[in-house]
Write a structure and sequence with these properties.
Largest sheet: 5 strands, antiparallel
Distance between the termini: 27 Å
Order of helices and strands: EEHHEEEEEEHE
Strand order of the largest sheet: 1-2-3-4-5
Number of domains: 2
Number of helices: 3
Transmembrane segments: 35-52, 58-76
Radius of gyration: 20 Å
Keywords: Membrane, Transmembrane, Transmembrane helix
CATH architecture of the largest domain: Roll
CATH class of the largest domain: Mainly Beta
């Protein structure tokens, strides 16, 4: 049984945890982070072409500015597609950004704590994030609300404590 669902487990042994996003989830991340901002800009441009003359100029500026802001936030957001944890050695991320694929390596000794956060609202779900010594935070896992199971969250928490040798606290 895969406790990391919706992630695909490539290896889960005593000396390594290697998981990757499923192909469907990777495509949906791409659509929401790359295609949606372009579509949003095109829709607002079309709207302004059709009814722009009847809208006051101040509202047009607000609409264009807010659309560009939301599109930029979505477009420049990066997301993790692959994670590999080697106990006592390092944590390896593969992240997708607008500029391509980035690889991050974090030494395991620099991990201070792991936090489990539950969010409500637009991006519902459970987030496991690591806090490293300089005060930075990196999201390890994001489990959407449709896949949350309390038993699996407890098993993931225990497995991360075992691999990283730091406490996992609920935030």
């Amino acid at each position: 049984m895969n406790i990391y669902h919706p992630y695909d487990v490539l290896a889960d042994t005593d000396d390594c945890l290697h998981i990757k996003e499923s192909a469907v989830r990777e495509r949906s991340q791409f659509l929401s982070a790359r295609a949606l901002p372009v579509l949003l800009i095109l829709c607002v441009w079309f709207l302004l072409q059709q009814v722009g003359a009847s809208i006051p100029m101040g509202w047009i500026y607000v609409l264009v500015f807010s659309t560009l802001l939301v599109a930029a936030l979505l477009l420049f957001r990066s997301y993790t597609t692959e994670l590999k944890i080697i106990p006592g050695n390092e944590i390896f991320f593969v992240q997708q950004s607008v500029f391509g694929t980035k690889e991050k390596r974090i030494p395991a000794v620099s991990v201070v704590s792991v936090k489990l956060r539950r969010k409500k609202g637009f991006s519902k779900g459970a987030f496991f994030s690591i806090h490293v010594k300089p005060g930075k935070e990196h999201i390890l896992l994001h489990i959407p609300a449709s896949y949350i199971d309390e038993h699996h969250l407890r098993l993931i928490t225990e497995r991360l404590q075992e691999l990283l040798r730091v406490p996992v606290s609920a935030a």
